[in-house]
Specification:
homodimer; 351 residues; alpha/beta; seven-stranded mixed β-sheet; four-stranded mixed β-sheet
Chain lengths: 351, 351
């Protein structure tokens, strides 16, 4: 879809009438694609984090709708409409926080409303591919916009994985880092390892190694110590849902970083397509935060690290208030010091 | 040494003329003591973190001096003085940040100055046992003092391990949590897992399970999210070295917590014996911060988590400025809102 040398990784591929997902649970040690051809398996792959990252979940769900409709049409012919809602519900129940999931299902539902007679698969597949391609294009555009905010010789710190693996391709926050690096603006890139799932150590590091972008991993707790030393000028993160006032839900640890960034005078950039913005919610308190299994904290790579008899708290996301955000970068433009009025203006613009 | 039901764990034991260390690298899965009878092995055990925690390193070093002198006396008779300095240097070079190491060696060196004729082992062993017993007594006293600062129904969050494993016994910050729990003051105890070495998940959790004190583990990045929800009233930590102005070096991630605590109006308590206070240093910038091997971040329990080609930054400690500390609890008393004048007053008091 793109010949950019910084855009070779695809976590999601549609080929041979089948959806292939790169199993992100096995990275960086094993690169294995899983073929999916029924909607329950697609939903389970999202729940189990075979694929993760808000935009990637959205793209996967779009293809999941194609798979669901194709299967219903094969089984029930023109009556497929009657039973499709339960499949869409199954997809929507896979994870609660990333609004891109619901956005993609809604977009596919709209495409269903204007279908020609007969097999709906081809038209819906075209729509899902459009969702995928538009996400990649949005990421490249956001990459340029975000890089434009960064001064030469800047140090940046990112959290979680927001690259090709978390999106249709190229990445949101990591797309900005790719673009800024290519423009020669970055003196160093730091990545939080991002416990408990280690998206930084396993996924972000793997992507940047493939791009030959030097990256230094750190324990999540080291961030304030790093900022105090003055080597970091921007914290750059993605988002799973942005509320109508600019409050940002993202991977647990993001809010901890935002508090530290403000304390140290480090700027804080959120990079997300407008499919991540949920204007239905007036503020971040209304964003549902997924609590994932305790086992993700108590173990690591299947290896138990904590003693028996201990419990763990494992919220997968936190909410950073808009007041701590310096810029939200979307494919429609940049919102500086976001608030409700600016978010409404962004969303009503032609983009 | 103490019959307290909350004080049954001993990381350091002297028996049968030998030093036994509980190998903390293997906890919580395996409880194995290592017997040490030469000083190079004692220094290596400190470097390799068989034993860790500033007060425990101090106690271990005191016994290490006994082992060194005994060996030199056996080999060289009354000429043992001539060669002992190289052993003390070997011990002192084992780790750079915890000042208790140098404090203990200095105290043992003073005991060497007034030895009677003949075999010095018994007198020096008595001194090392005194160092050990005094540390335990200090911890119990600090436990009471620190618990006295905590209001009923408080939630607390701790970082790293500061319990019996990190000290002669009972613990510093974890001693305060033990005392406050026994006094019925705690509504909940949260522990950071404390990457990269997982002292919280592996050691603090293990100690609290044995004491039947309920504890909830969390990823280090979750701290601000927890504080925002209002369930935590005190962050309670230990220290590896406190400068003369009250700046506090402690496990990496502590400063990140202190910044977050101040932002959320959560109080911040440091618990450390006066052997941790280094009045030679005017501020925290002068404290040497150990950088440990990258491998501790890139791997976990011998299992590689990051891809090849990635580097990691692994500072073992950070420095929290005195301005972010609400109270330093020592065996000589509590210093509120520490500064240089208050620290001098504390150290010159009879205590």
């Amino acid at each position: 879809m793109n010949t950019d040398s910084y855009d070779n990784i695809r976590a999601i591929e549609w080929r041979d009438d089948c959806l292939y997902l790169l199993d992100q649970r096995l990275l960086p040690h094993t690169e294995k694609y899983i073929a999916l051809s029924d909607v329950v398996a697609v939903a389970k792959a999202i729940t189990d984090m075979v694929v993760r990252g808000a935009p990637a979940i959205g793209v996967t769900a779009a293809y999941g709708v194609v798979i669901a409709v194709r299967s219903r049409y094969q089984q029930e012919g023109d009556n497929w409409h009657a039973s499709i809602e339960q499949d869409l519900h199954c997809l929507a129940a896979s994870r609660p926080t990333a609004v891109n999931l619901f956005w993609a299902i809604d977009r596919m539902r709209k495409a269903m409303e204007t279908l020609p007679e007969g097999d709906p698969t081809a038209v819906l597949l075209t729509e899902a591919i459009a969702v995928h391609k538009e996400d990649i294009a949005a990421n490249h555009h956001m990459g340029e916009l975000g890089a434009g905010l960064i001064s030469p010789s800047s140090g940046v710190l990112t959290h979680c994985n927001t690259g090709s693996l978390a999106t249709g391709g190229y990445g949101t926050a990591l797309g900005v880092i790719r673009s800024a690096y290519r423009a020669g603006k970055l003196s160093c890139v730091y990545a939080d390892e991002t416990r408990p799932w280690l998206q930084g150590a396993r996924l972000t590091a793997w992507e940047l190694v493939q791009d030959n972008i030097p990256v230094t991993l750190q324990a999540d707790g080291a961030a304030s110590h790093l900022m105090k030393q003055g080597g970091v000028h921007w914290v750059i993160v993605g988002s799973d849902r942005i509320a109508g006032n600019g409050d940002v839900a993202n991977k647990i640890g993001t809010y901890h970083l935002a508090v530290a960034a403000r304390y140290h005078g480090v700027k804080f950039m959120v990079v997300a397509p407008t499919s991540t913005i949920d204007m239905q919610l007036s503020c971040g308190d209304e964003i549902p935060i997924e609590n994932r299994p305790q086992e993700e904290v108590l173990s690591l790579g299947g290896q138990r690290i904590a003693p028996a008899g201990v419990s763990a708290w494992n919220p997968s996301f936190d909410v950073t208030p808009a007041a701590l955000v310096d810029a939200i970068v979307t494919e429609k433009g940049v919102v500086h010091s976001p608030n409700a009025a600016k978010m409404r203006e962004l969303m009503s613009s032609a983009g």
